[in-house]
């Protein structure tokens, strides 16, 4: 049994998709499938249920998942212990934070040449667990979280991007009122997979006294929202960032009600270094600068 096999198994188990797990681990889908199959062969039992329509955990897979996470956490702590104390800061986020995070790291490194700053891709739950376990010093999240041992600092608020097919009746009309958006079906992943987006949209329509938009069939776990928009040009969705794609038009809601907070999560006050505080301040400065340039 190899740690990379556990890494790939955890990725598939959390994403419930071999393709998304492969993207997350920066390897091919065939490679990640092969490594998970090797792990199953060594254990003598299936961990992942595979079908043409869905991916899920077997009973054994559900039992192994928390143990695999624990083993990977221990491996990360061993690696962290081997580093020079105080000479490294680890920040966890997802890819949508990459551009601003790397800009902040580049700026901070000019001021702290002796500090190594790492940017690590992790899912939401992994980020929180990593901060609590001491594997990372700082996590970026959208929304808020209340957990003993954690401190959450609001960094800024992002406007969500409204996406639709360029054949949608509202495409190319500039900022669109919520009332007009609400007349068309809304495409989203199931609420259990994207609680924040569902809450933000619900609250925005409720605050403005509008009927909530009719929900299109939930986005399957192995589909992308933009591809579904091309197949169903009367639908719309919201994204955290604009991703230029052929056939997709982007706009914003006129009321600027579709907004999400971005926060930094650290261990309880006093449990992190001044470098982490400097990194948080630099992230905010980079966001302000890029917002002004936009």
Strand content: 15-25%
Following the backbone from N to C, one meets helices and strands in this order, namely HHHEEHEHEHEEEHHHEEEH
Q: What radius of gyration results from the CA coordinates? A: 21 Å
Can you tell me the residue ranges where pLDDT is under 50 for at least 5 consecutive residues? none
Count of β-strands: 10
What is the makeup of the main sheet? 5 strands, mixed
End-to-end distance: 49 Å
What oligomeric state best describes the polypeptide chains here?
Answer: single chain
Helix content: 40-55%
Task: Report the principal-axis shape.
Answer: globular
* Strand order within the widest beta sheet: 4-3-5-10-6
The chain-level mean pLDDT equals 87
Number of helices: 10
Structural class by helix and strand composition: alpha+beta
InterPro entries: LysR_HTH_N, LysR_subst-bd, WH-like_DNA-bd_sf, WH_DNA-bd_sf
Organism: Williamsia marianensis
Keywords: Activator, DNA-binding, Transcription, Transcription regulation
Protein name: LysR substrate-binding domain-containing protein
Q: Care to give the gist of this entry?
A:
Keywords: Activator, DNA-binding, Transcription, Transcription regulation. 44% of the residues lie in helices and 19% in strands.
Folded structure, characterized:
The chain is an alpha+beta fold and 294 residues long. It contains 10 helices and 10 strands. The strands form 3 sheets. The chain has a 5-stranded mixed β-sheet with strand order 4-3-5-10-6, sandwiched between helices. It has a 3-stranded antiparallel β-sheet with strand order 8-7-9. Strand 1 and strand 2 form a beta hairpin. The longest helix is centred in the first third of the chain and has 24 residues, at 59-82. The protein is globular and about 55 Å long. The relative contact order is 0.14. InterPro entries: LysR_HTH_N, LysR_subst-bd, WH-like_DNA-bd_sf, WH_DNA-bd_sf. It comes from Williamsia marianensis. This is LysR substrate-binding domain-containing protein.
